[in-house]
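In the design runs reported in the main text, the only information available to the sequence generator was the tokenized backbone. The following block is the verbatim input for one such run; it is reproduced so that readers can re-run the procedure and compare outputs position by position.
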């Protein structure tokens, strides 16, 4: 596969950097995420890039949106790789992709959710800084206040409805429940959407760069904190320990109501996004994980939504 993409990438890179022959001297895949394929590319002049390639529109996200959010976050000084060029048509590699600078550091495996206390503190501090960045200077045309929450709910509802002709009653009820109980955020900021262990590069004591920005948007940062507690960081430390860390390091306190609401939202988002894997499995990527995410994991998230909504 690396040789199959070397030639078209080399031609495309030459056009971007305005070099007649931007010789690719090294290329290999460096990550196996479900939504994107990441390829390490090194050119003869010593430049190192990561090509982040879509995989059939998995999870209802796009390279163009991810590129836009990463570019804005980098301009605001957030810890994120510098994005270079976007190829949105799929004409070069068969799928849209973008190029970003390669960042030196350590990445953990997809199933390794461990963090030292020092690293966890730095992660929380840096995530809070992302939330507090002055996004309005770089990102325009987005909803603010409670409208931002409604827009985010509507986005995921639209993703799910685009994947099936048959309405799923529990997801319809969840969308209505979320809209009805939405409240004005204390703060509107950049929301990463998938923060936590496995989605950042580190040097053993601090976060060098956040990765995997395909779910990033402007909204209520409590979405990220709740996601970290109940999903990506759930096996890293207990809920009470995360909450104490948020308060001590970032000055962030989360009420039980907020945690409950955004837990419902995150499982709703996951249930909607996971449905896209069924289409991808039927079309361009018949890998077993696509089938499992689009069926079993989707149903697990729907059940979690129903359970949480049913709690007093």
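Verbatim output:
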């Amino acid at each position: 596969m690396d040789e199959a993409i070397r030639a078209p990438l080399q031609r495309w890179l030459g056009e971007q950097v305005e070099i007649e022959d931007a010789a690719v001297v090294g290329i290999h895949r460096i990550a196996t995420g479900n939504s994107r394929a990441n390829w390490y590319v090194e050119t003869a002049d010593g430049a190192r890039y990561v090509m982040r390639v879509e995989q059939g529109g998995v999870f209802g996200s796009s390279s163009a949106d991810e590129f836009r959010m990463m570019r804005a976050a980098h301009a605001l000084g957030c810890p994120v790789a510098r994005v270079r060029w976007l190829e949105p048509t799929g004409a070069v590699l068969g799928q849209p992709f973008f190029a970003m600078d390669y960042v030196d550091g350590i990445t953990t495996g997809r199933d390794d959710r461990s963090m030292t206390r020092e690293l966890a503190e730095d992660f929380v501090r840096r995530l809070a800084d992302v939330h507090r960045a002055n996004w309005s200077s770089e990102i325009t045309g987005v909803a603010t206040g409670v409208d931002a929450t409604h827009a985010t709910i509507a986005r995921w509802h639209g993703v799910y409805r685009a994947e099936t002709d048959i309405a799923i009653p529990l997801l319809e009820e969840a969308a209505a429940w979320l809209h009805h109980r939405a409240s004005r955020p204390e703060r509107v900021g950049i929301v990463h959407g998938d923060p936590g262990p496995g989605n950042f590069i580190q040097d053993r004591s601090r976060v060098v760069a956040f990765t995997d920005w395909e779910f990033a948007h402007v909204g209520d940062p409590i979405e990220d904190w709740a996601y970290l507690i109940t999903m990506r960081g759930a096996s890293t430390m207990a809920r009470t320990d995360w909450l104490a860390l948020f308060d001590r390091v970032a000055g962030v306190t989360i009420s039980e109501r907020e945690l409950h609401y955004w837990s419902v939202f995150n499982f709703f988002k996951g249930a909607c996004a996971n449905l896209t894997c069924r289409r991808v499995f039927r079309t361009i990527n018949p890998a077993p994980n696509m089938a499992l995410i689009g069926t079993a994991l989707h149903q697990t998230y729907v059940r979690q939504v129903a359970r949480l909504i049913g709690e007093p």
